[in-house]
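anyone seen this seq b4? input:
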Amino acid sequence: MSLHESFDVLCWSIYSIDKNIKSVAVINNKGKIVEKILKPEFAEQFPDYFNEIFCMHHVLQISMGRDFDDHHGPVNYHISERANLTTLTFPLNEDVLLVTTSKNVSPITLARKIIPLIEKHRQPV
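predicted toks r here
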């Protein structure tokens, strides 16, 4: 299975966890989207130029968190709750997994459902 196919499978498995998930994306360390699945109405809210800044913010957040891995252990995930959406970011080897949801989701419960899928993705086929 190629890396692209692997990311596609991971994104779809996460996307299907909950109907309130608006998007799932794998972002490389330069802030570029490698794979994504999103609801059409969510795509309309984020023009391309804004999407790049949004993604880079989350990559930087995970990257800066790695600076403290030696002292506190690796980051499992970050949660950012805003007025109308919640984002969850997960380190994914050199990449970042970004999940965007509506406010109708318990972010910690969702994160705990996503972590085993990421671990399964990391295992060799």
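The CA atoms of residues 25 and 116 lie 17 Å apart. Helices lie at 3-15, 40-45, 48-66, 69-72, 107-122. kinda curious what u guys think
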